[in-house]
Amino acid sequence: MARDLLNGMTFVLVLHCMVATTASAAALEKINASYGAISGSMAQTWVAKEAKLFEKHGLDLNLVYISGGPRSIMSLIGGSVEFVNHSGMPALEAYQRGADTALIASPMNHLEHSLVVQKHITSVEQLRGKVLGMSTVGSLTDILLREGLRLNGIAEKDLTILSVGDLGARLSSLQTGRIHGAIIAGVQTMTANKLGFRTKPDYALSVLKKYVANQDPEVLSNIYNLYKERLMTKPTPTASVAKTMLYLLSRSSPQVSGANPEGFIEARYVNELESSGFFDEMNRQYGK
């Protein structure tokens, strides 16, 4: 059974789809999935993996990190992975070009990115002539960086935008002075600030420590508390979220302007879980 299904607006909740699968006495079904950021928005997938919830429901999950939306989509379409926990925008763009991708869950419906800059930059105008970093061309960080510059009256021709790589590469490039600013997400901003740039708790924290590779208790605690509130317990994908993604995509890809995203939304998995009482039970056991 093909599973060319992509999660996410900012970030898909594979767990909610997987737990509905009934485990059998047969061998576990092997599947490949990826996550696309070292961010607390990925925590639900990490926790499910470490708590062996996928195995409990008959799945042997091989979870890998793939940085950058375009690379994730190439892996998805090419069959290397079957599910992606990532921004939905690259998948929506691929869908508009004829790929069989779908948004099956959306546990976050807002953006959380910031532009972190060298300490000597104190105003937007000082970005002119500078070098800014994002992850990869066509990624969410790329789209949002360009849109943010536009909204602040900075033309792209007045500065340089570089494809730098994942969060670690962007922070390293800031430290070495290769770039003057970088776009990052959520409480990654706290890590950047601690480096001198501007801008079930115990179990969950132990998982975060492993995946974000950060031992700072203040950073880990803030990641946990922030995403505990932001991640929705019922991640129903909606057309309104897809339309917002299309609006942002249209800035760099005018051909998608006015496109209909309805076929990209596949809510039946979340709806089936809701009908079964799954979310009510989860709220009773693990309510915020």
Summary, kept brief:
The chain is of the alpha/beta class. The protein has helices at 14-18, 43-50, 53-56, 69-78, 89-96, 140-151, 167-176, 188-194, 201-212, 217-230, 239-252, 268-275, 278-286; strands at residues 5-6, 29-35, 59-65, 83-85, 113-117, 131-134, 160-163, 181-185.
Q: How many independent structural domains?
A: 2
Bin the strand percentage: 5-15%
Mind telling me the CATH class of the largest domain?
A: Alpha Beta
Q: Which regions have little confidence, pLDDT < 50, spanning 5+ residues?
A: 1-25
Widest beta sheet: strand line-up:
1-4-2-3
Sketch the major β-sheet. Answer: 4 strands, parallel
Discrete helix count:
13
Distance between the termini: 35 Å
Please count the beta strands (DSSP E, at least 2 residues each).
8
